Amino acid sequence: MTLLIRTLEYLRFYLFWTLDFFKGSNTQKHLTDIAYKIENYSSPKVIALRQESLKKILDHAVNTTDYYSKFKNYHSIKDFPVINKNIIRSQEQEFKSVIFLNKKTKTVSTSGSTSSALKISQNKNKTIRNTADSIYFGKISGFKIGYKLLYLRHWDDVLRKSPLTKFMQNIDELEVVNMNNEYISKIIRNIEKDASKKGWLGYPSGFELICKYLDSINSKPIKANIKSIITMSEGLNNYTKKAMNKYFKSEVVSRYSNMEHGIIAQQKKGSSDFLINTASFWVEIFKIDEDEPADINEPGRIVVTDLYNYAIPLIRYDTGDIGAINYNKKYPVLTKIEGRKADIIFNTKGEIVSSFIVANVVEYDGIIQGQLIQEEEKEYTLKLNVTNNFNQESNVIKEFKGYLGHDAVIKILYINEIPLLSSGKRKATINNYLK
């Protein structure tokens, strides 16, 4: 059986690259380009190549789309406005390149967790670039083509793959919605029986539930041959990071990506910083409430220019997320990614507070889940899902006053479950005061 599994791994690996070879080695060319540009970020040649890629997409946008046509006399990217999901949705046709109107493109759609969904067309070269990005960032986390991918997320009818595709891509679709102990136990049994090399990819909240279950049965480390664990879409708390490493013997890294673009940044093993995908994107940080660049290490809006989507150029696209950049390293990194601007929590002095103060609340004995809501300038509700073992309410309030301010008014609300969004994700924070 082990020989058969190894044979299938090699077959999938060589079949993928053989097919790519006969199609012109496009994925391999992109992969080589990504590795070279990221790993030689500071070289004069790579700096020139990045500038060339940026100029190409800007020129394409002003010459082939109605929206950007008024910027034909631009001098630099600084002459372009910041756009967002709502602007594109209200003027969708104006963003489309006339060159690709009658050509076959791929349509990707945002989940619509925070508003109605947005559909973005991607030209073929962009979809190949995304595949190469996935291969590169998977590889630096320990995942290789041919390994089995345990993919833990919400699978709707649009995302769900056919049995043949799942077999060819070696993917196990694991559903994060309504996870219970019986389902988790089944997942663990199946991966223990399977001797193949594997990678986990999924929502941290789903991994947290798996770890809590393994805690409850006093489980020993799982013999599952896990080579890579990547989390996405939600904040990764310290408990889940440590527990996944404990049970599956693989370091967890967090990925920052979205449906509109692809992989924007990802942690490297041994670092909490997010390596920015400078090969495929031009990333800027703007002040929270102004279209002006933020200072170095100042938290601000993450604004992304896609260097490869020519079907709908996304120039200076406000992702809605908050982060901070540090350029004083070998490669530029995002030192912070705080999630949606609409969900950012402020302390009583008006300063941004990291969402991880909520993510790590599960380290208290008896707390299963938590969610922090800012109701007014100095008023907060902390929702807690707890077991009968929990008896540290005063300690939790004291800790949160340390984060939010000693004049913060914190109300504890005990609930049975933090509800999932339609995407299968959970919000750690909500800001009703801003709304």
TrEMBL record:
Under the heading InterPro entries, the entry gives: ANL_N_sf, CapK_Type1_Caps_Biosynth
Spell out where the chain crosses the membrane.
none
Looking up SUPFAM superfamilies in the UniProt record yields: Acetyl-CoA synthetase-like (SSF56801)
User: Which PANTHER family does this UniProt record tie to the protein?
Assistant: CAPSULAR POLYSACCHARIDE BIOSYNTHESIS PROTEIN
Know the name of this protein? CoF synthetase
